[in-house]
Write a structure and sequence with these properties.
Shape: globular
Pfam families: Mob_synth_C, Radical_SAM
Structural class: alpha/beta
Radius of gyration: 19 Å
Catalytic activity: GTP + AH2 + S-adenosyl-L-methionine = (8S)-3',8-cyclo-7,8-dihydroguanosine 5'-triphosphate + 5'-deoxyadenosine + L-methionine + A + H(+)
Largest sheet: 12 strands, mixed
CATH topology: TIM Barrel
CATH class: Alpha Beta
GO molecular function, one term: cyclic pyranopterin monophosphate synthase activity
Protein name: GTP 3',8-cyclase
EC number: 4.1.99.22
CATH superfamily: Aldolase class I
Number of helices: 12
Number of strands: 12
Strand order of the largest sheet: 7-8-9-6-5-4-3-2-1-10-11-12
Helix content: 25-40%
């Protein structure tokens, strides 16, 4: 492989500057769309990346052009060595951010600040405590809600991610938008996506068009402001006139953003996924532990990336259960 080869550019001309690293398969919630009802078979601890291995792999990606790293899980903050992981990764020239369910994030405010983590995505699928318990199988709504307010007060940039499911929380779309009235947060509505064990079907999905129908019925057209999306943005961004915050729709299913995708994913057990929807993985950890370079594996994985959604370039293909049953459950990929 040529020393000057850009191993993070795929055959469709997309440069990958964003790495999402899952730190753990464990979580203190049990969200139905993320974790199968029967639970998951956790990887043995010896199969998971140590903090040194996370750092070494991340360093290789940064050397080849990654400028942004997001830590995910499971719930990344349940990992006991999270302080040292943050410290090690903060030494790299990258923007470091995290996705959390915010149940215990109040204990980590100082550590996050000390390591330059300013952007926090919080998963919250309902503003109703009973619905929250139903979807997460846990009584933690007040803790999460209070911690979102705490993060805003402490000056973090907060995005709230809500997975929409028809007949469950689609009647809360306007409530979520009104949540942005007095708070400088961004609420992002995510289309329900297919993963192993989450009982996905198209009828449960609330599309981008359906979200905007709710919005147009609740607000005057002149008050719905279309915002400029950032380069490589996964979402279409809006705000309501006079509101402090904003809202967005991530339409991975009905209106995918694959043309500008710049993301790669590293699972907690050291497997590289070139797409959230991809059923294939590339083992980086085994080679790293054997003292072998991992660049050629990264290069091969990036070159194999499909143009659209792991090769599922039509809704018909996406609806075939044999295709998405080969993929992991969301909790073992990393949110």
């Amino acid at each position: 492989m040529s020393e000057n080869k850009n191993i993070l550019q795929d055959t469709h001309g997309r440069d990958h500057a964003y790495l999402r690293i899952s730190l753990t398969e464990r979580c203190n919630l049990r969200c139905t769309y993320c974790m199968p009802a029967d639970g998951i078979q956790l990887s043995p601890k010896s199969h998971l990346m140590t903090y040194e291995e996370i750092y070494e792999i991340a360093k290789t990606f940064v050397k080849h052009g990654v400028t942004k790293i997001r830590l995910t899980g499971g719930e990344p903050l349940v990992r006991k060595d999270i302080p040292v992981i943050l410290e090690k990764l903060a030494s790299l020239p990258v923007e470091l951010s995290i996705t959390s369910n915010a149940v215990i994030i109040d204990k980590f405010v100082a550590i996050l600040k000390a390591n330059g983590v300013n952007k926090i995505n919080v998963s919250l699928d309902s503003l109703d405590a009973s619905k929250f318990k139903h979807i997460t199988r846990r009584h933690e709504f007040k803790k999460v809600y209070d911690n979102i307010l705490l993060l805003v007060k402490e000056g973090f940039t907060v995005k709230v991610n809500a997975v929409l499911m028809k007949g469950f929380n689609d009647n809360e779309i306007i409530d979520f938008i009104n949540f942005t009235k007095d708070l400088p947060i961004s609420v992002r509505f995510i289309e329900f996506m297919p993963f192993d064990g989450n009982k996905w079907d198209m009828s449960k999905m609330v599309s981008y068009a359906e979200v905007m129908k709710y919005v147009s019925e609740a607000f005057k057209e002149k008050d719905i402001i279309r915002l400029q999306d950032s380069p490589n943005d996964t979402s279409k961004n809006y705000k309501i006139k006079g509101y402090q915050g904003s809202f967005a729709i991530i339409s991975s299913v009905t209106n995918p953003f694959c043309d500008s995708c710049n993301r790669l994913r590293l699972t907690a057990n050291g497997q590289l996924k070139n797409c959230l929807f991809s059923a294939t993985e590339s083992d980086l950890l085994t080679s790293l532990r054997a003292g072998k370079p991992i660049e050629s594996i990264i290069d091969k994985a990036v070159q194999a990336k499909f143009k659209v959604r792991g090769g599922m370039d039509t809704l018909k293909k996406l609806q075939k259960p044999d295709l998405h049953s080969k993929n992991r459950s969301m909790i073992t990929i990393g949110g």
